[in-house]
Amino acid sequence: MHQFLHSMKHYAIFFAVIAALTYVLTLVLGADKVDLDKYSTVTITKGDTLWELSNKYHNHHHLTTNEFVKWVEDVNDLNSDTAQSLSPGDKLYIPVLKKELHNQVAIEQ
């Protein structure tokens, strides 16, 4: 009986560790996902840069220019080379909530 309880204790510890690791991995992997439906998109025009977009929308986000650029690169799967060569017509998500832009348009009208 003693050996049975001892092995059950090991199984319980093993499954507790597996459950804890699964929980932590779920939190870590799920934390990087952004709900893009909440964010605005912009259509790139000739000469646009990510830094200019950050400045253009500075009243609608609370990021530094570098944080804005990094967010756009990460969410849109850009690297620094592709971010330098944006083409007119490209559509990018920016870290500006749709409701922020909607509220601004309503105020201006």
TrEMBL record:
Q: What is this protein called?
A: Cell division suppressor protein YneA
State the CDD domains in the record.
LysM (cd00118)
Describe the function of this protein.
Inhibits cell division during the SOS response. Affects a later stage of the cell division protein assembly, after the assembly of the Z ring, by probably suppressing recruitment of FtsL and/or DivIC to the division machinery.
Localization annotation: Cytoplasm
Give the chief site where it resides.
Answer: cytoplasm
Residues annotated as domain LysM: 40-94
Among its keywords, does the record have Repeat?
no
Its transmembrane ranges are none
UniProt GO BP:
division septum assembly; DNA repair; negative regulation of cell division; SOS response
Q: According to the lineage, what is the superkingdom? A: Bacteria
Q: Which UniProt keywords apply?
A: Cell cycle, Cell division, Cytoplasm, DNA damage, DNA repair, Septation, SOS response
